[in-house]
Amino acid sequence: MEKKGKQKKRSGPPPVLGNALEKDLRDWVIGMQRKGFPPTRDAGTIGRGWCDRIFKRFPELAIRNAQIIKRVRNGVEYNAVVNFFGRCARAIIEENAGPSRIFNLEERSFVQNLKTRKVIAVLGSKNVWSQNVEPGFHLTMVACVSADGFVMPPAFIVPGKRLKGDVLDACNIFGTTTTTSEAGFMTTDIMREYIAAFALAVPLPIKRPLILVLDGASSHMDASIDSEASTYGVRLVQLPPNASHFYQPLDVAAFRAVKTILKEQMYSFMIATGKAAMIKKEAVQLASTAWRMGIEEKLENIAADFEEAEIWPLSLPMMLRRLKTFKENDSKAQQPLPSWLVTQQVIRSEILVLPPAADKEARRRSVYVKRRLLTQDDLRNE
C-alpha cells in the first residue's frame, strides 16, 4: 500500500529524454500553441507509441483538430473590443433597452467547403473519392433574432432578376421572404428593404427604438442604411472588424446548428436523387428545412447564444476574457511559460544585414515595340 505523502513511481525504464527534458518539451508545446503554431507529428521521426506515452505522462496534452484561420480573423484588437462595448452600453443605457429590444442580424451563404469526408470503404483502397452536391449559384440566408428568443422569418437572396413561382412555394416557413440580386449577395438596396421589413415584423408592444447588432459588411455601411434605420426606429451597432466569430450570437452557435443540419440534408438529397447539383427551388427547400430544425425548433438556444457572445448580459470583462482565450489559442494551461522559452533570435542573420551591392552592368535600353513580335535578335540589333 502506498504511503500517504509519497509520490507514486512510474513502472518501467526511465524516459529516454529524461524527466526534465520532457517537461521542457511540454512547456514548448504549450508555448507554440499560444503563439498560434501548435506542433504536429509531420516530421515523421516521432512514433505513435512514444506520443501515446508522452500523452499519458502529461494528460494536459492531446491530439486535436486545429481550425485553420485567416490572419485577419486573428487580428481583433483590444481597443476595438472596448469601443464596441462602449457603443453597446451607450445604446442600451440611453434607450433603457432589455433583451426584447436587442437584435442580431447575420447573413450566411448556402455553400459547403468540404475537402474530405470520412467514409466506409473496402480495406486496401488507395484512392477513395466521394461525390458532393452543390448548387450552381450563390444563395444567401438572412437571419435576425433577439436576445429574448424572438426569431424573424428568414430571407433568401438568389441570383437573377426574375423568380419562378416554385421557388417561392419551396419556402415552408411562414413569413419567409425571397428576393434577387445580380450575384445572390446582400446589397445596399436589399438591406434598406430588410430594415423596413424587420421593424414591421417586430410586435408593436415592444418599445422602439430597436437595437440591431450587425457586422461591417459594405452593404450595411451606406449612409442610406442609417437614414432608413432612423426612419423605422432602429439603432445600428457595428461589430468590431473581423470579430463576428467572437461577438455575433448567430455566428457563435446558432448558424453552426443550421450548417450541420444542412450538410446532412444535402447528403440525403444526393443519395435519394442521385444528383450532384440542385436548382433554386431545391436549394431553398433544403435551406428552409435546416432553418426550421436548427433555429425554430431550438429557440431556447438563442438567449444562450447572446450570453455566450457577451452581448446580453453585456460584460466587458467577459468580452476581453473571450478575446484573450482566443489569442492564447484556447490553451487551458494557466501557468506562465518558463523564462528560458523565448522567441527565436534572428537579428544578426536576418535583420542587421546590408543590402546587396548594386549591379555594375549597364542597364538595357528600352525598345519601341510598334505592335511587333520581337525576337532576341531584334532586341539586340535595335
TrEMBL record:
What GO molecular functions are on record for this protein? DNA binding
Write down the InterPro entries for this protein, in alphabetical order.
CenT-Element_Derived (IPR050863), DDE_SF_endonuclease_dom (IPR004875), RNaseH_sf (IPR036397)
Pfam families noted in UniProt:
DDE_1 (PF03184)
Instruction: List the record's Gene Ontology CC terms alphabetically.
Output: nucleus
Q: Where in the numbering of this chain does the DDE-1 domain appear?
A: 140-296
In Swiss-Prot or TrEMBL terms, this protein is called Uncharacterized protein AlNc14C177G8147
Query: Any coiled-coil ranges, and where?
Result: none
User: What Gene3D superfamilies does its record include?
Assistant: Ribonuclease H-like superfamily/Ribonuclease H (3.30.420.10)
What top-level branch of life does the organism fall under?
Answer: Eukaryota
